[in-house]
UniProtKB/TrEMBL annotation:
<dbReference type="Pfam" id="PF00441">
    <property type="entry name" value="Acyl-CoA_dh_1"/>
</dbReference>
<dbReference type="Pfam" id="PF02770">
    <property type="entry name" value="Acyl-CoA_dh_M"/>
</dbReference>
<dbReference type="Pfam" id="PF02771">
    <property type="entry name" value="Acyl-CoA_dh_N"/>
</dbReference>
<dbReference type="InterPro" id="IPR006089">
    <property type="entry name" value="Acyl-CoA_DH_CS"/>
</dbReference>
<feature type="domain" description="Acyl-CoA dehydrogenase/oxidase N-terminal">
    <location>
        <begin position="26"/>
        <end position="115"/>
    </location>
</feature>
<keyword id="KW-0274">FAD</keyword>
<feature type="domain" description="Acyl-CoA dehydrogenase/oxidase C-terminal">
    <location>
        <begin position="255"/>
        <end position="404"/>
    </location>
</feature>
<dbReference type="InterPro" id="IPR009075">
    <property type="entry name" value="AcylCo_DH/oxidase_C"/>
</dbReference>
<keyword id="KW-0560">Oxidoreductase</keyword>
<keyword id="KW-0285">Flavoprotein</keyword>
<dbReference type="GO" id="GO:0050660">
    <property type="term" value="F:flavin adenine dinucleotide binding"/>
</dbReference>
<dbReference type="InterPro" id="IPR036250">
    <property type="entry name" value="AcylCo_DH-like_C"/>
</dbReference>
<protein>
    <submittedName>
        <fullName>Alkylation response protein AidB-like acyl-CoA dehydrogenase</fullName>
    </submittedName>
</protein>
<dbReference type="InterPro" id="IPR009100">
    <property type="entry name" value="AcylCoA_DH/oxidase_NM_dom_sf"/>
</dbReference>
<feature type="domain" description="Acyl-CoA oxidase/dehydrogenase middle">
    <location>
        <begin position="138"/>
        <end position="238"/>
    </location>
</feature>
<dbReference type="InterPro" id="IPR013786">
    <property type="entry name" value="AcylCoA_DH/ox_N"/>
</dbReference>
<dbReference type="InterPro" id="IPR046373">
    <property type="entry name" value="Acyl-CoA_Oxase/DH_mid-dom_sf"/>
</dbReference>
Length: 406
């Protein structure tokens, strides 16, 4: 939360940002410039080489993210982070996704995720490791029958003496094998024993070695049509044993795992909006450059009015989508009312804008766009996913309409 947000009570915070609140301050411009330079000079060439081969982000690139402090944007300075807000976190995410969405995504596996140990000294240790990129995890929330409906999670966690025993299946767990830990949502009591379906859902921390699964966990890679750079797994949990302190302590009463997951999703949805803008911007910029050099009928195709108008519509849509995630990020940083709904609005509009803009860009490339010779096809494939993960467009519409009609 910004200093302004700390000085004011929530009752004084409005959903309308002051005229200068969303401005790019000199510090934000410097951060954006550093992220953009890194993305274009170091990430984009790697993406162009490895994505067509469906290979993961190399360790050297992860190390560079740690050196630049991008794994610690949301971690306080006391623990080696930058102590910044959701706005700065998403500002960097847009720049990284413009080059390779997987790199824009991997920083979400740091930035304090998986650090809520009940032991204060252990929590401090994990926060320092997270900020440095030495504690990078994988999110194990979804299941074969529980995606948008997280309250439908069936994975169980039962007590056995001083340990927890985890059983079940997790799906869509990106970066699982290479991670330092799994951030796991499981059910500690059967559904129906609480007041709601979500009662009994808790978050567990599963430490592991990079490159192998712990005893009781096996994994199968999921074949995807895009979003390469992060291998996605289906995990089978069969008698996974965890110590008592694996239950994450978020400062809330027991039984808050589901609500904590939803809070995490609020920030994740704004970040998805920023990543979607990055993809759309990459496709737009590439389409502009291609239209200048591609000639048909003796002239660059950029001379054609129909194409120029298409580019103008694409550019306006990208700017509008960015404005939405800027506003949503500001609300979350301020702790102001309406942040979650604004996050859904930003995610809905930006992801669907990205799908449309990247498709238009591929059309501008013509047949050349339907090859792996240009980055535009990667932006197109990855943009399609942004309308699905972190809550589908249909789920975002439900959240927004429920808020309107409540």
């Amino acid at each position: 939360m910004s200093d302004t947000g700390k000085r004011r009570g929530l009752g004084e915070v409005t959903t309308a940002a002051p005229a200068d609140a969303l401005a790019l301050t000199p510090a934000r411009r410097d951060l954006q410039a550093a992220a953009r330079a890194f993305a274009m000079k170091e990430v984009l060439p790697v993406a162009d080489e490895l994505d067509p081969r469906h290979e993961d982000i190399p360790a050297s690139l992860l190390d560079r993210l740690g050196e630049l402090g991008f794994f610690g944007l949301l971690v306080d300075a006391e623990h080696g982070g930058q102590g910044l807000g959701v706005f700065e976190y998403c500002l960097v995410s847009e720049e990284l996704a413009r080059a390779w969405m997987s790199v824009g995504s991997i920083i979400a596996r740091g930035n304090g995720t998986g650090c809520a140990s009940p032991d204060p000294s252990r929590r401090a240790e994990l926060l320092r490791a997270s900020a440095a990129g030495r504690w990078v995890g994988a999110i194990a929330f979804s299941e074969p029958h529980a995606g948008s409906d997280l309250a439908g999670v069936e994975c169980t966690a039962r007590r056995d003496g001083s340990e927890w025993v985890i059983e079940g299946t997790k799906r869509w767990v990106g970066h699982a094998l290479s991670a330092d830990f799994l951030h796991l949502l499981a059910r500690t009591r059967p559904p129906g024993e609480g007041e709601s379906r979500s009662d009994g859902l808790e978050l567990f921390l599963v430490p592991k070695e990079r490159g192998r699964f712990p005893d009781g966990v096996t994994g199968t890679p999921i074949d995807k049509i895009g979003y390469f750079g992060l291998t996605t797994w289906e995990l089978q949990l069969d008698g996974l044993r965890l110590p008592a302190d694996a239950l994450q302590d978020t400062g809330q009463a027991e039984g808050q795992g589901f609500k904590d997951s939803l809070r995490w999703l609020g920030t994740a949805r704004v970040q998805t909006a920023a990543r979607a803008v990055g993809l759309a911007r990459g496709a737009l910029e590439d389409a502009v450059a291609y239209s200048r050099r591609r000639e048909q009928f003796g002239h660059p195709i950029a001379d054609q009015q129909a194409l120029r108008h298409k580019l103008a519509d694409m550019a306006a849509a990208v700017d509008a989508a960015r404005a939405l995630w800027w506003h949503a990020a500001w609300l979350l940083d301020e702790g102001a009312p309406g942040g979650d709904v604004a996050a859904s609005s930003a995610k809905l509009f930006a992801s669907e804008t990205a799908e449309r803009v990247t498709s238009d860009a591929l059309q501008i490339f013509g047949g050349n766009g339907y090859t792996t010779e240009h980055s535009v096809e990667r932006y197109w494939r990855d943009a399609r996913l942004t309308t699905i993960f972190e809550g589908t467009s249909e789920i975002q519409r439900k959240i927004i309409s429920d808020a309107l009609l409540s």
